[in-house]
Amino acid sequence: MSKTIRIGTRDSELALWQANTVKNQLKKLGFLTKIIKVKSTGDLILDKPLHELGITGVFTKTLDVAMLNGDIDIAVHSMKDVPTVLPEGIVQAAVLERGNHFDILVFKNNEEFLGHRDAVIATGSLRRRAQWLNRYPTHSLVDLRGNVNSRMQKLTDNDWNGAIFAAAGLERIGIEPENTIGLGWMLPAPAQGAIMVVAMQDDEYVREACAALNHEPTEICTRLERQFLNKLEGGCTAPIGALAKISEEQEITLQGVLLSVDGGKKLEAELSAPLGKHQNLGFDCANSILSRGGKRLMSEMQKADLKNNAEKAGIFSTKKLTHDQLSRVNDGLHIDSEDFIKISLNRISAATLKQEYKNVVITSQNAVDALLKNISAEELQFKNIYCVGRKTKRLIEKRIGPVKHSERNAKKLAAHLVDFLEGIEITYFCSNIRRDDLSEILTANNIQVNEHAIYETKHSAQLLDDNVKAVIFCSPSAIESYLSKNKADKIAYCIGETTAAEARKSFDDVRVAKIPTVESLIDLINEDSVGH
User: Fold this and answer.
1) Which residue among 43, 64, 81, 103 is the active-site one?
2) Is 81 a catalytic residue?
């Protein structure tokens, strides 16, 4: 049965142009559609440069929430604005054929200022700013925010020499300034000029409808550019550019660049591969830059960010957060993160893993990774798999096979096994550091537990600054690691009751997520911040 596909979009002229383009293409294919306008954070906050908002996905976050809430079926984005890691449950449904990927300079009066020492150029993009300063180091750059029309008006109203725009944006809404210069020397943002459609992973009807809109050459090129960006972990906080092209000879060439914020340092890479052997070109290009000083440059910029944000860095996560998780944080809050637990996968012989196991217990993603390090899923002979946690269950079923039963925590799983286990023996694939609840309960009930420590958990804590008032914990081990160097004088935000129980042994103020996910923890922190 057909349904009306609700298309979510920002309400700017350019965003609506893009949404209507998708609507018209779906209409030609016979689908019913409706456009839903949603105001984004990036549209509402116009007094700060994008990189100072402290989140990635600033223009996509609100639409993601609307989709997860069931208010819209698909969202249409300028692909360059979309974080490289999509929220759980949301997938890329289509990439439309790319438009003009170049940046252009719109200038007033004449071009003579390009040869002068002093000039004022406007842009809200860290990437454009850095590349311009690399080429014109004596020029001054001012911030420019807002939609395309308002930015053009600001250029008219201010005493600037010029402003930088994405050529595709101007072309799509029919703005053709008289005085423009194409900036062919400036590498665009990854996926600039492309339009992405995202949908819910479990909405097969909508995903199939959008699949017909997909332009494969554009999808291939933008995937490599975003792969390059993801490897460098730049988001909106580092000046990164990338552009992939497919030649008539079916060869793909990827150019990438990483710069310091002031444009003083510039690292470039250009690699090519035949179509069909291009899958890791983005990673290879990024690794080339990282190996030639990119790691040091990224580290310097990250340290500068930490220093600049020191006064507002009131929350620290003992688990490294993804760009998408950070984008969930309320504006005005700042969360720093670092892994306080390091994982080392042990080498387990293939012969050991190829044995037939009737009952298997797996309690973490790390155990899944360790199992599949030296053997394929097809070679594993697990009859009954039991696990802890919904995320672990989904991962096991995706990478290994069906899960017979799962529970929220080890105690509940142990209780289930006592009543329903087929036999009197299980094999527990675990860490060298773990809670003993499961093994103790099973052993006390005459069930033999064969433990295999297939990965090692190591403490890797750091001393936190006094300005940190709250700490996020995602495991009891992280609490133990934290306490090795820090005092229990802060608010402890815990991912679940097992972690919270450990935290209550030391912390006075312990708060628990409504559901055991990092996203739910961040939502709780957001709610608490509103209350204060």
Assistant:
1) 81
2) yes
